[in-house]
Amino acid sequence: MVNAVITATEAKTRAIFQAGVRLPDGDMATGTTTDAIVIACTGRGKPGRVPQWP
After folding, report:
1. Measured in whole angstroms, how far is the alpha carbon of residue 52 from the centre of its chain?
2. Residue 8 domain boundaries
3. Contact predicate 28/17, CB 8 Å
4. What is the pTM of this model?
């Protein structure tokens, strides 16, 4: 689940960059301290196959 949070954060940051959002000093923004990401997992259902990396 940690990787899901990382992926969501990277996607959010890229979307903000592509939108051209900037801080008052002109630097590119990456998000705010009020941003939130939630990953919900019920634990129900059949387990999926975990990809194997070389």
Report:
1. 22
2. 1-40
3. yes
4. 0.58
Residue 50, domain member (yes or no): no
User: Is residue 51 in a domain?
Assistant: no
Whether 1 is in a domain gets the answer: yes
pLDDT in tens, 6-54: 888 888 888 888 999 888 999 888 776 667 888 888 888 888 877 777 6
> Tell me, what DSSP letter sits at residue 4?
H
Does any domain span residue 32?
A: yes
DSSP letter for each residue of 15-33: HHHHHT-B-TTSPBP---T
Q: How far apart are CA 8 and CA 48, in angstroms?
A: 20
